[in-house]
Amino acid sequence: MEYKDFYHLLCPELYLRSVFDLPIDHLKELGIRGLIFDLDNTLLNWNAYEVTPEAKELFIRLQDAGFFVMFSIEQQKGSCGSRG
Predict the structure, then answer these.
(1) Hey, which residues does 70 pair with through a beta bridge?
(2) Taking 60 as the threshold, does the pLDDT of residue 58 lie above it?
(3) Residue 25 covered by a domain
(4) In this structure, is residue 17 part of a structural domain?
């Protein structure tokens, strides 16, 4: 697989007002098997350390539907767990 083909796999083709609007059944019909979510200022509010009960429920539903779920987090220098 060429780089440009791989890059295309990471570009969104669906834009929603909220992550809670994900059309789970439609994504399965399209053959999508995994989803990547950004935590910082997306699923977690700024300076928050726990996801909401609604977000937890969403991820349970996604796992139950057979999706692979991955999280992205940007650590700033000096943040908890940072090595820089």
Answers:
(1) 36
(2) yes
(3) yes
(4) yes
Instruction: Answer yes or no: is 61 within a domain.
Output: yes
What DSSP line would sit under 28-82, residue for residue? HHTT--EEEEETBTTTB-TT--S--HHHHHHHHHHHHTT-EEEEE--PPTTSTT-
In this structure, is residue 84 part of a structural domain? no
Surface-to-core class of residue 36, CB atoms within 10 Å of its CB (0-12 exposed, 13-18 middle, 19+ buried): exposed
Tokens of 83: 């090595």
pLDDT digits (tens, 9 = 90+) for 40-52: 777 777 777 788 8
How many structural domains does the chain have? Answer: 1
Q: Is the pLDDT of residue 78 over 60?
A: no
